[in-house]
Amino acid sequence: MACDTFIIIARCCKRNMSVLQQDDHEPFIDEIIRNLDKITNDLSPSQIHTFYEACGLIVGHVPSSSSQARMLGSLMAAPNSAWDSIVAQAREDSAVLTHTDTIKLLGSVLKTNVAVCVSVGGGFLPQLTRIYLDMLALYRSSSQLISNTIASDGPIATRTPRVRGLRTIKKEVLKLVEAYINHADDLDQVNTALIPQLLEAVLVDYNQNLPEARDHEVLDTMTAIIRKLGVNLVRVFKLIIYREGLQNKFLPL
């Protein structure tokens, strides 16, 4: 309830909370971020996501882009620390991605990123850039683990907690990319800097997956991105799907 109230307040007062007020020594959002660990210590994962979304609303209205980037980095420090730890472990041993606790933590970190991205908007780019390549690598790894499990255990494996958790990771990656693109200020930069790697990871993976391992969210995300970016993306999209032999997997453009 307190988190729901806070996000309502943040929506109404985000400008005032993002700048220095008379008689204060720092903007209120700085104080919140500094005490973030204490504030979120007893919150459930869903409450944490709501709280971060509220903070993102405030950070998104910081007038200076450099100050906004600094605050965003501070806001995301804890999720990034957890993310960096898992990525480092996965590079040493990919089996870490089969651990239930790791899968849950990855899903939660990605949901936190989605919540902040939606509220910060185009200013989320520094954070997205920070995790982007590792995020796509984890997408591929999660997908491969799903396919391997289904191949060995059969379609019933899709109902297991581990496979459902891995699918959550993939879905949250797609949600994050789609959320950023929907709020991006520079679509040309998105088209050149983000989209090629995304299409390589997602469409090739979709083609190589077992049918039971394919997620319809891939098609939903591709449709949303094409609608947002228009004809320039269509050209890149066609190049990749024909090069990889994916034309039978997707509707003609």
Textual characterization of the structure:
The protein has 253 residues and is mainly alpha-helical. It has 2 domains: 1-75, no CATH class; 87-253, Leucine-rich Repeat Variant (Alpha Horseshoe). The protein has 12 helices and no strands. The chain has helices at 2-18, 28-34, 36-40, 45-59, 65-75, 77-92, 100-120, 125-153, 161-183, 187-208, 216-229, 231-243. The protein is globular and about 65 Å long.
Number of strands: 0
CATH architecture of the largest domain: Alpha Horseshoe
- Give the total of domains: 2
Helix proportion range: over 70%
Q: In angstroms, what separates the terminal alpha carbons?
A: 46 Å
Uncertain spans: none
CATH class of the largest domain: Mainly Alpha
Question: What is the CATH fold-level name of the largest domain?
Answer: Leucine-rich Repeat Variant
What portion of the residues fall into strands of 2 or more residues? under 5%
Radius of gyration: 19 Å
Q: What does the main sheet amount to?
A: none
SS-based class: mainly alpha
Shape: globular
